[in-house]
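Checklist before submission:
- one chain only
- standard amino acids only
- sequence pasted in full

Submission:
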Amino acid sequence: MDVQCILCDSVEHIDENSLYAKQLKSNYLKLHLCKQCNERIKDKTISRIQTGKFRLYRKEKEEKYI
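Returned file contents:
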């Protein structure tokens, strides 16, 4: 199965029977990133976190009591 990176438009071949390929087929909204783009984003995110100006706005989980 050939997949295309959404950032750099490079085409990669992945095994059609792999779990990742099955996830891409079943969920059309899931996007593919090549390894180089994924590493680049990861490195930049880590450097932004280390500056202290990076904030994640996540919803707090509510505890449910039954």
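Reviewer check: DSSP finds two helices and two strands in the chain.
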